[in-house]
Amino acid sequence: MLWEAYALLLIAGIIGGFVSGLLGVGEGIIYIFVIPYVLHFWNIPGVWHAQIIIANSLAAIFFSSLAANYTHYKKKYYYPRPTLIIGAAAIITSGLSLKFLVNTELFSMKIFLCCLIILLLYMLVLTLKGAIVPANDSVQQVPVWGLTLIGVLSGIVAAASGLGGGIIVIPLLNRFFGINIRKAGAISMGVIMLSSLAITLVNLNTDVSPPIEGSIGLIIPGICLALSATVLFTSPLGVAAAHKIAPRWISLIYAGFLLIVIVDKSIRLLSLFGYTS
After folding, report:
1. 10-24, 109-123, 125-139, 234-248: which range is least confident on average?
2. Highest mean predicted confidence (pLDDT) among 58-72, 111-125, 147-161
3. How far apart are CA 201 and CA 212, in angstroms?
4. Domain that holds residue 152
5. Best CA proximity match to 95, nearest among 191, 198, 206, 219
6. Residue 277 is assigned to a structural domain of this protein
7. DSSP annotation string for 84-105
8. Span 41-55, mean pLDDT?
9. Is the CA virtual torsion 32, 36, 38, 41 positive or negative?
């Protein structure tokens, strides 16, 4: 029944909003876990499943990141220079990725899951290693080339995975540039807001054939609104919690969520290849 889908999406929104504020990775980790379980309620053709998951995850992420960034701004945990440099690079590469790969016939659910699992495993290792990186207050000292490279990678990952790009931004800032994970999360949330908005605008204007009833391009308002309904309340709570929890524990919580998604997506990938019943 459709109400079951909305109930599941609302619960995911509550959890995801808090997680996004706490970890700075958007709700993508929660959304890509939940959205596949409700697609059949909208009779979406299988050929578009991967694109629909990505598009609607990122559309909902935009609203939560907007709320989280407002909270960061009020608390003066905002770093415009790295955010704008990474965000600009991410917008360009995400747009190119959508046009030439993701929103084409070349991009299938198998490709989506394979790339996602490999990426998540790599990020899990980086995050666990970065759990003991000491605090560093010199956020402005990250070189422009480093910020640009992070933006390029995060834009590609956001467009192809639906995770918002924070899964790249946080470990790279934390592990390779020694930025405290709390600050890396604040920068990540700003980048997510910029890149998810750009990607959503593209997806709203994407032609879908055969058409999906009730959708605007690749965006299904019912899914996005249900996921976003509670973020104005839960995302700021996550931000507040992030500044009371030790960075090491934030890293370990983040790693835990990564592990859950890795297991879920691995099972789904095996089922596509016929290895599970």
Report:
1. 125-139
2. 147-161
3. 18
4. 2-39+47-272
5. 198
6. no
7. HHHHHHHHHHHHHHIIIIITST
8. 86
9. positive
